[in-house]
């Protein structure tokens, strides 16, 4: 994505446009599935993913100006580059938004998520989130155990999750997990 100060909710394509493959994202540790958001409560594939990966906690978040207190501040916080000590798992049930992740060259890669997209960001990857111009997304948030909400703003090179991420994904020591 281009790096200008225009509205963060715009696509920010490079000129000419460049796209990355799901395989490239998987090499960064980012996993992706496309599921049926209309029947998420009964979706067998979602149940299998949750069981295989240990996602035993779930909640729902409607993110839009009308439903979130201090909306502008929360969106600003989500868009500040950070890492987490655990995976970040989000399943888009309605609406759309962008996850930006850092590639191996430290440039931003913009991932547009829409209804049906389930994305897993590995612990320690630099990322941020924003809505697109629709200004609405309904997300299912999944966790292993009790939710941990702590974001560590960049720089965090000495954080154990960041060190583990560097070792597992940028040095190609880890094994990719099957997604899609």
Automatic annotation (TrEMBL):
Its main location: membrane. Its cofactor is Fe(2+); Ni(2+). It is a peripheral membrane protein. Pathway: Amino-acid biosynthesis; L-methionine biosynthesis via salvage pathway; L-methionine from S-methyl-5-thio-alpha-D-ribose 1-phosphate: step 5/6. It comes from the Eukaryota. Fe(2+) binds at residues 82, 84, 88, 127. It catalyses: 1,2-dihydroxy-5-(methylsulfanyl)pent-1-en-3-one + O2 = 4-methylsulfanyl-2-oxobutanoate + formate + 2 H(+); 1,2-dihydroxy-5-(methylsulfanyl)pent-1-en-3-one + O2 = 3-(methylsulfanyl)propanoate + CO + formate + 2 H(+). Binds either 1 Fe or Ni cation per monomer. Iron-binding promotes an acireductone dioxygenase reaction producing 2-keto-4-methylthiobutyrate, while nickel-binding promotes an acireductone dioxygenase reaction producing 3-(methylsulfanyl)propanoate. Ni(2+) binds at residues 82, 84, 88, 127. GO terms for biological process: L-methionine salvage from methylthioadenosine. Keywords: Amino-acid biosynthesis, Cytoplasm, Dioxygenase, Iron, Metal-binding, Methionine biosynthesis, Nickel, Nucleus, Oxidoreductase. It is found in: Cell membrane; Cytoplasm; Nucleus. Its EC number is 1.13.11.54, 1.13.11.53. GO terms for cellular component: cytoplasm; nucleus; plasma membrane. Belongs to the acireductone dioxygenase (ARD) family. This is Acireductone dioxygenase. It comes from Escallonia rubra. The lineage of its organism: Eukaryota, Viridiplantae, Streptophyta, Embryophyta, Tracheophyta.
């Amino acid at each position: 994505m281009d790096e200008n100060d225009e509205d963060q909710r715009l696509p920010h394509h490079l000129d000419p446009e460049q796209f990355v493959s799901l395989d490239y994202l998987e090499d960064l540790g980012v996993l992706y599935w496309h599921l049926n958001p209309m029947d998420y409560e009964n979706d067998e594939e979602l149940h299998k993913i949750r069981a295989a990966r240990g996602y035993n906690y779930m909640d729902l978040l409607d993110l839009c100006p009308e439903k979130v207190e201090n909306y502008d501040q929360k969106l600003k916080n989500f868009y500040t580059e950070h890492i987490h000590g655990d995976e970040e798992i989000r399943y888009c049930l309605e609406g759309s938004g962008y996850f930006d992740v850092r590639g191996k060259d430290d440039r931003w890669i913009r991932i547009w998520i829409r209804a049906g997209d389930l994305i897993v960001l590995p612990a320690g990857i630099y990322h941020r989130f924003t809505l697109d111009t629709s200004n609405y997304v309904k997300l299912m948030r999944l966790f292993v155990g009790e939710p941990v909400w702590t974001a560590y703003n960049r720089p965090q090179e000495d954080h154990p999750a960041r060190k583990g991420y560097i070792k597992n994904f940028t040095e190609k020591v880890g094994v990719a997990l099957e997604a899609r």
